[in-house]
Amino acid sequence: MASDATVTRHLTRGGVRIYGFRVETFPNHFNNIYLILDGPRSTLFDVGSGLPDSNAGLDAAMHAMRERYGESIRLEQVQHVVISHSHMDHFGHVGYFVHRTEAQVYVHELDARVLQNFEERIVLASKDLRVFMERAGLKPQARADLEEMYRLSKSFFKSIRVDRILKDRERIINGYVVHHAPGHCPGQICLQVDDALLTADHVLSRITPHQSPASITPFCGLELYLASLEKMRQVSGVSLALPGHEAVIPDLAPRIDAIAAHHQRRLGQVLDICRRPSTLVDISKALFGERGGYTRLLALEEAGAHVEYLFQRGELGIANLEQVASESNPVIYYEMRKP
Ligand SMILES: [Zn+2]
Ligand SMILES: [Zn+2]
User: Fold this and answer.
1) What is the mean pLDDT of residues 262-286?
2) Which of 250, 259, 263, 270 is the most buried (most CB within 10 A)?
3) pTM of the predicted model, to two decimals?
């Protein structure tokens, strides 16, 4: 492994060259985009947000790779573009490859509709988000602000066609194995190339990947996420994990253990908070403190995923059931169920 500011080179057991590019996809938000060079085959794993700075960062990283490692490939020559999951920082630039190059675009079947019917997805997700925020106990102005922010952050993407719809365990390109790992995102995949596992946002080296409730997006949620962590632990022959953000993960299993343990602790904290009736806004504040802007929504979603997990298991109950029964969409108060 060698690296400079933006490019890291990895060599798999089978001699496949994987270049990691660190690209600023949103202000102060960095993604790892990977270029996999395997004989005559070239594959890009994720493409960045599509914002001008993100695209420039990807171009600069490709240039640095050519200069430093003597590769000759250019972005417009890449043959395959695999999207790890349908979050904007990972797929936003995909339109360039669809409209301006010959590349084939791949995405998991549960995320294909986001890329192909993006406008529909945003309209529907905004509505589900509104219901979620009302129940959470957010004030109307805060709800309107967050909804507006949600829509704006996604307003610049236009739907595209996808060439290949991926399924779990499928082998693509040169035997690379698709591992479906839903939870962080419905169509989240990890891609196994020889002994390297590209984990995208399923496993990260420092932060725990963001969780949101299945009630906002089906196939998200902590239940599926924890099951997908276990699933990735079982994948054999992995000696290197390459995540979608942050540093390389040299040893996957201990990192999976640490993330799972973190969520168990957090579930305990939520139960503790709910010794007295609490709204999701209360729970989020107790866990993460006061948050502003978009991180407030992320904190609410994270708290919501844990509440949902406990509620589905009967460990939390609803403290104001009569009100919930009689009003259209009131704020819900959760309470720990006495054993
Ligand atoms: Zn993500
Ligand atoms: Zn991400």
Assistant:
1) 98
2) 270
3) 0.95
